[in-house]
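Sample intake sheet
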Amino acid sequence: MSAVLISPYSAIESTIRRYRPSHLVSLMVEPQVQTPEAIRPECHLRLSIHDVTQAGDGVTCPEHSHISSFVDFARTWDRSSPILIHCWAGISRSTAAAYILLCDLNSSANEHRLAQTLRFYAPHAEPNPLMIRYADVLLSRRGRMVSAIESMPPAVSVVEGEVVEIPLGQA
């Protein structure tokens, strides 16, 4: 069974060694993540975005085009091996992307149930709300993704998230 993996930047290499994912998604501006040898270059998506919800000087805000690129890329994943999604701390951008992916893979599933699945596996998850808003529109979820994330219980406070494995059969 395949899985969606979420990790902080510091755990990329160990997560790749342990789980052998076929696809890698890097959601951070600096440092620029080089494609690990175990990942084919065409299977590594880099989106240079900051973990913000409003534009500011020197800040790259997530945009609709970023989310569209992510969804298009994730749809190339054949699910024979895990997909690894990471950001700096493994708390906000990566958990938002994982939730977006779960919603896209389970197009008829209840968004609140998928958010509960995310919270169960990643108690520290604080999905970036701007990324979720763009995905909600892109996936035609009519505000249900936003509502589901907003209704999640508070996250466990951490400085850096643990590596998370969400088995596809559980989503």
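Comment: The helical segments are 12-19, 64-74, 93-105, 111-121, 129-138, 144-150. Strands lie at 3-8, 23-27, 44-47, 83-87, 164-167.
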